[in-house]
Amino acid sequence: MTTVHGLPAHVLLVHVIVVLAPLAAVLAIICAVWPAARRRLVWLVLALAAAAMVMTPLTADAGEWLEKRVGPSPQLHTHTQLGDTMIYFSAALLIAALALGFLHVRENRDHSMKPGLHWVLATVVILVSVAAGVQVYRIGDSGAAATWGDQMAEPTG
User: Fold this and answer.
1) How far apart are CA 136 and CA 128, in angstroms?
2) Has residue 81 got a pLDDT over 70?
3) In this predicted model, what pLDDT tens digit does every residue of 24-60 receive, in sequence order?
4) Nearest to 48 by CA among 71, 21, 68
5) What domains sit in the chain, N to C, each tagged with a CATH number?
């Protein structure tokens, strides 16, 4: 996908990632530390993480198409390099969501699950979720700098 009604698809698709990944990350953390929330939200977290995983390469491909049309710059290169890493963060977030789903199913079947395993998983989910959120911020910040950096540096008027 290259354009949508004349707009570069990347400009539109990036907003999907900016919403889905942090939302999945925040809900994953809540599910990791609060069993009542996990019982209600774990499948939503899994769906959001899966959607973010699917949308990440589509957004990156649309970004590569756009990069070829706007020309090189150091800021765009930084943004592209950071954007290429998001697939790893999306994959880690999906794996964390799958682990939460496994924990949920396991808790429903075996009520005598070891508490230590729960906290190890919660720690991993928190670390992965925070890392994914930070990476979304870093990519977005570099994209904003590549797009608006020169215009925002000059005073108007």
Assistant:
1) 12
2) yes
3) 999 999 999 999 999 999 999 999 999 999 999 999 9
4) 21
5) 3-148 (1.20.120)
